[in-house]
Known about the structure:
Elements: H1 3-29, H2 31-53, H3 61-87, H4 90-97, H5 100-112, H6 118-141, E1 146-148, E2 154-155, H7 159-163, E3 170-173, E4 176-179, H8 180-187, H9 192-195, H10 198-202, E5 205-210, E6 213-218, H11 222-225, E7 228-230, H12 240-243, H13 245-259, E8 264-265
Helix pairs in contact: 1-2, 1-3, 2-3, 3-4, 4-6, 5-6
Amino acid sequence: MPFGLLTGLTAALFWGSLDVITALGSRVIGSLRVTAGMQAVTAVAFLAIFLVTGATLPTEPRELGLAALLGLVGAGAYLSYFTGLQFGPIAVVSGMVAAFGGLTVVLSVVLRGASLSLLQAAGATIATAGVLLTALAFVLSVAQAPAAAPATPASAPPAEYIDRGACPFLFHKQGRALCAIHHVALQTGRPVASVKPSACRHWPLVLEAHGRRLRISIHPDAEAIGCVAPRAQLPGQPSMRQAFAAEIEEIRRLARGRSGAGPVGT
Length: 266
């Protein structure tokens, strides 16, 4: 195998692994720390290479300025990329980043005068359009209805709400709000229903009367506290209807049996 193809395949292997590793790391310690750590390790590795090979660093002001600019651009690209992996689906974010190839083609033609055949131009256009359509399809698939995240990060509640005595089992991690009871149940492998009190387990579901009909909805303060958030802020998390399917059905049974009311909707 030609050396160029071998190094290209090696780069693809490293890049593919990097996406998953940085996504996991960013969701634990944050994208800024992951980026800083990677840049520090890269600097040490290149310094070792310089010492071993005897290479010299640039000394001309123009070269130093260009190197600094490229360093800033690279750091910004990595920070943006890792932040995307921290909050978005890995498969979608990684695919979106691949769209940079289209920009590279355009800039090479505009700035470097490169020429493309009709087939090459069509291939670059189709590939870039495919990446962008994948991202668009994901965005359109994310409903704006609130999403439940009792054991995963949600929007952090305002400080004044905490001061008024919000749920004592609410704790914060990485700027998000979590339910301590739910979290402990999942971490220890116990059923949530066996650990959480019923009143707490059904929060933030509420019953609203509409004539002879009852409607199950979400308490208006739930998002302010941090129990729920718009689906767009929690990609990959279940909707309220999905996460509270058992509790919704339980409330429906109780409402029908005790009040004799009509259908109970959500």
